[in-house]
């Protein structure tokens, strides 16, 4: 993945370019599950204008050339925020209980807001089953596509609902939950492509327990060399960009934007996963198939694991610990107290949620 600095670089150096123009306002999978929202889509931003600022500021630009140059990752960038960190945004969405659910063969309703002419259809969607490893594993069929040819039509400030079909066979393995995929949709406008990414949680798959040794992706030697030389070329600008971003004025600007847009991040304490020393497999803190946004924010005491709680409390409904005995009898193993990823949802409800408001 590109570094933060390269994303800032890209943001700075490309500011002057694109005018952009389709936004994923929502994606609804299985009925009754939460709705996902496109990464970096700002709910407070006006949708009734076509001007570059503010109405195009959170549309996502996803260009293969920028991805290949390691300027952005596979979900591209927005004009307001630069490179989209898929992992970060997925974890934020999980914590906020804002990840829609899917199963093999289910359909997603994806609401696309067309800002102006080149936010038109057709949109093509694909899937990153590992969430953020950069590998597009399947193309998805789209029905009821946004009207348009080559990304153009006369529609503007208008919303369309496209239908995206999940495959019969797929296996989401991304995120701390171990069962989250990233869906990416984008049109074919030459000033774009425009579109966005959002997370989906697969509820008919066993959440993945990763071990470092079985992570499958690799780059060719050629790509590694290219990336190294690209990164070396970028570094001076990237360092300058991050210095600039830390300047008083830049910080003031960022704070003003954050306040205007009422940006919030729900924050939960992270689970601690314990790996078996022989197999590398997690012996505790199994990922949860169904992290649901549960209301009560306080019974499992927000300080998981670490030797204080044993399994004793906050443990209701979470017998995943039964096979943890090797982990550390008596000290409450990893996330000992029944929260979060314990294999079922004693789950998220037990973790304190903090909402930060800028
Ligand atoms: C556009 O929407 C914003 C709210 O997002 C509202 O304050 C504003 O009055 C609207 N402007 C027009 C021209 O309708
Ligand atoms: C998805 O479709 C594109 C063409 O649009 C093709 O190049 C790519 O190989 C396909 N990806 C997969 C995983 O089938």
From TrEMBL:
The keyword Signal applies. Keywords: Signal. Residues 285-358 are annotated as: Disordered. Residues 299-315, 331-349 have a biased composition (Gly residues). Residues 1-20 form the signal peptide. It holds the Pfam family Egh16-like. The keyword Signal applies. Residues 285-298, 316-330 have a biased composition (Low complexity). Coiled coil: none annotated. This is GEgh 16 protein. It comes from Daldinia eschscholtzii. The lineage of its organism: Eukaryota, Fungi, Dikarya, Ascomycota, Pezizomycotina.
